[in-house]
Amino acid sequence: MRIVTYKRIKEFTEKHAASENALNFWYHTIRAKEWTNLNNIRQTFNSVDYIGNNRYVFIFLPNENPSFYLFFFFFSYAKKKIKLSQFSGFH
After folding, report:
1. How far is the C-alpha of 83 from the C-alpha of 73, rounded, in Å?
2. Which residue among 30, 66, 72, 76 sits deepest, i.e. has the most Cβ atoms within 10 Å of its Cβ?
């Protein structure tokens, strides 16, 4: 899969250092995958949910602090592309 918004992910990790390890792992794992449906994604990441219109939400729980982050992505299986549409952090 190709991630077309890596710059936004990098900017987020600069502001939220606790998310860096989880997002780097997520990024490198996704680049190596060829997903075709939600079940494929869940075999790799069980914290993903489909929310409609080719959009998915991933929940990241960094080990270093009690915060968690929600990342909303648009998946195009045909084009093998993922685009970050929104992210949120909670404490």
Report:
1. 5
2. 30
